[in-house]
Amino acid sequence: MTDPTQHPAAGNGDPAAPADAAATRLDFDAPAPDAATEPVGPIESETDAAAGRALADAMRVSFRILQAAMVLVVVLYLASGYYTVGNNEAVVVLRFGKIVHDETTPDGSGALPNLTWPFPIGQTITVPINDRDVTLARDFWYQVDEASGQGRPQALNPLNDGSLLTGDANVVHGRFTVTYRVSDPPAFVRAVGLLNEGDRLPGDNPDNRVVTLPTQRMAKADELVRNIARQAIIKAVASTEATPFTRGQLPSDTLAADIDLRLAELGCGLSVSKVSLTQPTVPLSVEDAYSAVNQAEARRATAINAAQQERSRVLAEAAGAAAEGLRRLLNDYDLARTAQDTARIDELETLIQQTFDTLTLPEAYGGTAIGGEASTVVNQAISYRTQVAEQVKAEAQTFRTLLAQYEANPELFRARLGWQAAQEILSSETVQTFWTRGDAPLYIETNRDPQVVRRLEERRLRESEAQAEADAQNANR
User: Which of 15, 65, 145, 344 could form a cystine bridge with 336, CB 3.0-4.6 A?
Assistant: First the structure.
């Protein structure tokens, strides 16, 4: 570039110099020349065109990616309203904070897919509807040592020891388990609700206890059921005596219905199905006395049971299956005699006579056949009666025959009868006969011959064995 102050024409006073200087001087204040009119070399034009095309392609691709991303975001937002309902679950659907409906999967059918509006338009709350157990372990229990887990037999302190008062004014302790479930999910969400992770748990020391597990989200429902159960348990035990309570005899169905009714009145959507008395006991200071009473009652029950078994055995041996009916018949007869009811006495005597004649009870007393020893005795009596009657008939016939012989010839009858009597006496096995001379002295020994005694004893034993076999055969029949 040439400085105009040093141009040769300017120094020699040439009149043309100013024009040339004006032509060659650069005007820095003038605007830049237009690119369209400025001459461009061939290499510079191709490079700029390629750069422009690359920039346009990049912008076009970026715009399409942005469009796809926006569509994906919209799809993901709409898909966030997708939810499933598993077994033992209910999902309460909200729209703008208002409960719309709830979904429940039938048992055993697996997860049920659904779709609703995403947040903040829509919202879903999953509520477990399976059975849950609430344990009342310390509410009505005495204070225990944390190290040993055992209590001490001392006077109860109402500030530390829980207890219950029974209907017979006794103090007892008990641990209970209440089984409940969410029966109305929308009502449960409105009235109780679930806790979120990090929320404080209700109950003791809430500042130090927060929700960390999914199962703890039902803590508000657990605490509500526990509080209602306390009231119902106090009422139920107050109408129960101490002895049945310590044996675990508590009207659990009535107690569960009472708790369920109280929850229904609150409209909290919860229902109770079962209440169990898991561990009843008495205060430790009187536990030994209660144990002694229970042992005595156990011995008493054992003795009564043994007596009843013996009674049943004796009655069965006495009259078989008809023993109870026969006892009632004879007892009614004794009562009629005590009341001196003549008509009733006659009626019962007739029934008793018919009973022992037929060995069958009247229909009013069961109509059962009499067995056992009573039937044996009655059958023996009937046999003996028949035998005696036949024997008397035979003796009467013999007497009539002998009477005719006597009337025909008394002297001959007496001689013949005497000889027959002497012959029967002397031919008996128990009589020993000795023939002596008429002039010889006669000595009678009162001691029996051992051989005769042995023969008599053997015959008696054989007759006893035969009678025993006959009795056994009759009993088998």
Answer: 344
